[in-house]
Amino acid sequence: MSGVRTALRPLLLAIPLVLVAGGPHDASNDPTVDGARPAGGTPADVHSDLPWLPIDGPWASVRLRDGVDPDSLGALLARGRPLRSAPIWRVPTEDLPALVAHPAVAQVWGLGAAPPPPDDIPPVTPDFDEPPTWRDQRRLRPLGWWPGGLGEGILVVDVEYDFDPSHEDLANNPPALLAGVGLRNYVGHGNACLGLVGASDDGYGITGGAPLASLAVVHPTPDEETWDPAWAIEQALEHLEPGDVLLIEQQYPTGKGLGPITSEPGAWEAVRAAVDAGIHVIEPAGNRGVDLDDPDFDGWFSRGNDSGSIMVGGVEDGAWNGQSGFGTRVDLHADTGGEHAPGWTQMSDAFFPDADPRQAYTARFGGTSSASAQVASLVAAVQGVAFELHGEPIGPAELRSWLVATGEPQEPTSAAEHPVGVGPDAQRAVRAWLAW
Ligand SMILES: [Ca+2]
Ligand SMILES: [Ca+2]
């Protein structure tokens, strides 16, 4: 386990909230009582008016009157335990009736079950995750029933322009920033990619394909003036371990339009080094319809010059989407017709209450960026299963070939003219690998 991964281990927080602190006693100098007193209620002795107090859990609390010696309550507190810092005792709720009757007790209140963390910022955000979603298409949802199938133990590092860690749909799986300077551009793009990979299954927004994977970000900008994806890949490698995933949400100008990041030789070398270190590298084929088999590229994108990455193209309804980079080098594709995803100010068509960017969502996140994030989540989920069942990761070349071998073919005419690989199927890949 890397330090990053450990540090990111969520936060399934024991927040034993004191649901309501208060009671009808002399509250004039008791800050805990505010808001708990019923309208029109008069401060009174706790003994006289217990029933409205919200005491519904197995544990409750009692505050003793100032200066009271707990020993004076005798056996009444025998099953309780004191807080160190205040004359307050946690006691079994069933002991309350006897305690309430005692003149040394000033106040009682309940301790129910921990409420969910308050991460869905008001107002309530819809659940955009109604099936069938892209996770169903990729057979990721049932993979969650397998041990490790939610990406447990896998770190996904996204090389990403920027993101907003305060977005509500990243709050339960917060991405760590590992390196680089965010320039506050394309923030929604980062939120969307990170969300498709690892947004939590928490009843609002979306659920990523690997919601229990740990997320981290490296910006491709080491400073405000410099764009250097190879540097970013090397920074990520400092934190990644075999079986982890590197998603590179960047493109490069090929001379025929924006294409894969490994068009740039430095990035190609960095990707090769990452793959040789056992990392699954996912890169988009780009969105300018570049023919990667064009003779002008002189075989740069041929299998003979394979960086080892999983190159991802885009389809709609099983056929080339009209924009994705294409060629025999493209390994996998995903649907780019538009997904619900966390957004930001400029990606807020689905939900944007009070113009709050922290709870902005788009219904139209597409392109090979979206497709690559989907594939990255799938790889993390499949790899999580591999770790759980075999205790060691599948190598990058092996996993890529399993995904290609078990994928859904592109529509034949489209595949002949604009090949973008196959559509991965997480269930089939895992079953085939297990049976092998
Ligand atoms: Ca909300
Ligand atoms: Ca969510």
Question: Short summary of the structure?
Answer:
This protein has ten helices and 16 strands. With 436 residues, the protein is of the alpha/beta class.
Task: Write structural notes for this entry.
This protein folds into 2 domains: 31-111, no CATH class; 134-435, Rossmann fold (3-Layer(aba) Sandwich). It is α/β, with parallel strands linked by helices and 436 residues long. Strands 5, 6, 7, 8, 11, 12, 13 and 14 form an 8-stranded mixed beta sheet that branches. It has helices spanning 3-8, 96-100, 134-137, 187-198, 229-237, 265-276, 367-390, 396-405, 412-417, 426-435; strands at 59-64, 81-82, 88-92, 105-111, 155-159, 176-179, 214-218, 245-248, 252-253, 258-259, 280-284, 310-316, 319-320, 332-335, 339-342, 361-365. The chain is elongated and about 90 Å long. Helix 4 runs parallel beside helix 7, helix 5 runs parallel beside helix 6 and helix 8 crosses helix 10.
In terms of quaternary structure, the protein is single chain
The portion of residues assigned to helices is 10-25%
Helix and strand sequence: HEEEHEHEEHEHEEEHEEEEEEHHHH
Q: CATH superfamily name of the largest domain?
A: Peptidase S8/S53 domain
Number of strands: 16
> What global shape is seen?
elongated
Strand content: 15-25%
Q: What is the total number of structural domains?
A: 2
Task: Give the ligands present.
Answer: calcium ion
Rg, rounded, reads 27 Å
Could you give a short account of the major beta sheet?
A: 8 strands, mixed
The CATH topology assignment of the largest domain is: Rossmann fold
CATH architecture of the largest domain: 3-Layer(aba) Sandwich
Going by helix content, strand content and strand pairing, the class is: alpha/beta
Distance between the termini: 28 Å
CATH structural class of the largest domain: Alpha Beta
Q: What are the segments in which pLDDT stays under 50 over at least 5 consecutive residues?
A: 1-52
Enumerate how many helices there are, as a single number. Answer: 10
Averaged pLDDT: 86
